[in-house]
Amino acid sequence: MATRDAYGDALVILGKKRNDVVVLDADLSGSTKTGKFAKAYPERFFNVGIAEQDMIGTAAGLSIAGKLPFASTFAVFATGRAWEQVRQSVCYPNLNVKIVASHAGITVGEDGGSHQSVEDIALMRVLPHMTVIVPADGPETLQAIEAVAEHKGPCYVRVGRNKVPTLFGEDYKFKIGKAHVFSAGKDAAIIATGLMVAEALKARDILKSDGIDAGVINMSTIKPIDADAIIAAAKHCGAIVTAEEHSIIGGLGGAVAEVLAESAPVPLVRIGVKDTFGTSGDQEGLLKHYGMSANDISSAVKEVVRKKK
Amino acid sequence: MVVTEDQLKALKEKARKIRVDILKMLTDCGSGHTGGSLSSADIATALYFYKMKYDAKKPDWKGRDHFILSKGHAAPLLYTVLAHAGFIEQAELCTLRKLGSRLQGHPDSKYLPGVEISTGSLGQGLSVANGIALGHKLDKTTNRVYVLLGDGELQEGQIWEAAMTAAHYKLDNLCALVDNNGLQIDGPVAKVMGVEPITDKWRAFGWEVIDVDGHDMAKLTTALDSAETVKGKPTMVVCRTIKGKGSKVFEGKVEFHGTTPSKEECETALKELAQETMCK
Q: Is the ipTM of this complex over 0.90?
């Protein structure tokens, strides 16, 4: 299931539970899956046309009127085109607006670099009051949407276009600001987010056959980052690899590096887009092209383990 | 609702006092936007002391009408009006722009009750007003939403996105006003980036448009009354104003967009403003 599909389902559930929930989109409701909500609750759905800046401001106004607005479009537009609206009209006044953006990262694929958002986590993370969440699968997305609805204040949730494996069962409990440790590992810990969590789990299996015990941590909340989990992993394994479908500058890798440098300096290798734009291609091809496949992560783990010595 | 002669007299006197307080606070502070605060003073007075419903003791009162100062640099005007309306103490006006003050350089809703949303970055207030108006439409409540724009601000693209949204969703509970003083920080609006014909543009975007002298209290109050009767579309009141209105020291002078008067200039202006009432 794609995380955007889970988002659409979550909105319908939430819309039934709470009649203050309203949803806005900028002509991409079929793609962001807000269309599911629009079908169920047409009077509470507002399409503003291809006008992302206006959408963010309108969402801010709806929150002043006592509504709980969810505003959606592609990540590149929600966080790039409308960045200053998010800053001035949402974060600065600390309004209860939820921005859920889809088609994030390079795995948008064929649409190419213009549509591949590899900067959005950095752009949202730098804003005061903002909470930033990147769910790894469908079930986590469902819980994350419920959690941001309960959380007071601006939230950014990043979802993807393509299907991702389901990693979490019914016993999983998502909590904002809390990392999930799949396995603690011994030689190095892979801290991953979004669809890279599944890649990290594959890398762990590859490494096992080489006799390397790598831990895997799902860091679905990028802000506030779970510093305790990062420090614990650094102390336990002595080496960290981060994996994200985003620029290695300013995103998960940047956030983890900040924590490590200040509180637990250990060798670090960041997997992600290395200060470049995206390009057209299919998911598998792109992950290989940008050095972000499970094989690349396992090589990075070997590299970081060597750095320990 | 028809404005009475007594009301008009009181409103004019209120606007005069507001101008006096704006000048005092700006001169005392030494930084801030003089011209656009003075040009909008009659508009804000008509809104707060004639038209709008609010409870200064309960700024979050659900039955209130909403006002958004999209041209956030006219903050000194908003603060003065909020003081006269009883949201804040008059004494607080002298804290303008000082460290720790609730009276930030541009309005900040985090700190100051009565400010609906922080503004300052131009072009964003109309979208926010639309959102509030949509919320009230959903709730079937009768609250009205007012938003004050600058004419230079109309150069922002987001304004025209929002103009479409307001008409598309038939937001007849929304009334926008533009302070058309013809000057922006770099010079005359017509020279920097022309925005005329303003009325034709808004009509073409599906709005009811009323064109008034923005210093004529009778016309302003009548425009606000008639905006309430418009059904199925939003109303734009184009207020033709004079930047720095109130004293020859500032009137029509672009250099007073973002600067404050010296003590001497303030004294001269205050004398003129005092005479204004004595004569009438």
A: yes
